Amino acid sequence: MRTVARAPVATAVAYCRRMRPPAEAIESLAASIDIAAPPDTVYGMVSDISRMGEWSLEAVGGRWIDDGSGQVGDWFMGENATPDRSWERECEVAAAEPGVDFTFVVGGVEANCTWWSYEMEPIESGTRLTERWWIVNKTPAVAAASPEAYAKRVAYTATMLDQTLAALKQAAES
Questions:
Q1: Has residue 124 been placed in a domain?
Q2: Digit-coded pLDDT (tens) for 103-123
Q3: Could you count the other beta carbons within 10 Å of the beta carbon of residue 166?
Q4: Closest CA to 60 of 71, 75, 69, 49
Q5: Which terminus of the chain has fewer CB atoms gathered within 10 Å of its CB, N or C?
Q6: What's the pTM?
Q7: CA 32/CA 136 separation, integer angstroms
Q8: The CATH number of the domain where 132 resides is what?
Q9: First to last CA, the chain
Q10: How many structural domains are present in the chain?
Q11: Within a domain: residue 36?
């Protein structure tokens, strides 16, 4: 069994509130798009985990655990699929400020592994939506991946960010 050093949880909570990857992140990506819709509308879309499959290449949906509703500390089961496989992961909501930020962490804040953040900024034409992805501690699957498979995963995630934002824009503006 492989042991993975973990960044402190206090650090995880602090950088979540700033909506930015920390210095100890081992990978981070971000992409932005302007959407002609108000921030609250965009927030309603990205925080509705059951709809993620409408715009994501990989996330096909999700369901709340224990009557969660999208508040900080709530958990959901994220459902994902690629042509090669399908899987589920428990995720914890780390930030939930309507019209501003919806962030969740695969495996939970304490595990401090893979973070996904959707940040909304009001602009004259509507909303600038930034999707961020970062890894602090590798999940067991990521830790077991070869360097080539890991690099391929990071490149795929960069493509997903762009395509997810484009699909969100199209859905929000139609």
A1: yes
A2: 999 999 999 999 999 999 999
A3: 13
A4: 49
A5: N
A6: 0.86
A7: 21
A8: 3.30.530.20
A9: 49
A10: 1
A11: yes
